[in-house]
Write a structure and sequence with these properties.
The protein has one domain: de novo design (two linked rop proteins) (Up-down Bundle). It contains 3 helices and no strands. The protein has helices at residues 7-21, 24-50, 56-103. The protein starts with 6 loop residues before the first helix and ends with a helix.
Length: 104
């Protein structure tokens, strides 16, 4: 199916880069980028079916996989967003404790 040759690697690359950033807020930002790429991929499946590059069965199977990937990504993004503020507070608390230890 002629398309951008990078479209199949963008979502996993964003997920990997976000994971490597360690901070939940950064990871969530990269997950949102990955979600955009996953939705784009799902859209390309429709175009592939329309242009008869895909059979109905293959389109349905790939659509299920795309939807599962999107669902899992939404779940992870929601989790990361929910712990972002607590993680920031914990980080501040750890920094304060370290500063007090150095001053002692």
């Amino acid at each position: 199916m002629p398309t951008d040759p990078q479209v199949d690697v963008v979502a996993p690359a964003n997920i990997a880069e976000g994971f490597g950033r360690y901070y939940p807020g950064d990871f969530a930002r990269f997950m949102r980028n990955a979600l955009g790429s996953l939705h784009e991929t799902r859209n390309h499946l429709g175009a592939g079916l329309e242009k008869q590059y895909l059979t109905e069965d293959l389109h349905r199977e790939l659509g299920i996989l795309a939807n599962r990937a999107i669902g899992a990504s939404v779940g992870l993004t929601t989790y990361l967003e929910s712990c972002k503020e607590q993680w920031k507070q914990d980080r501040k608390d750890r920094t304060k404790r370290r500063s007090r230890k150095r001053l002692s």
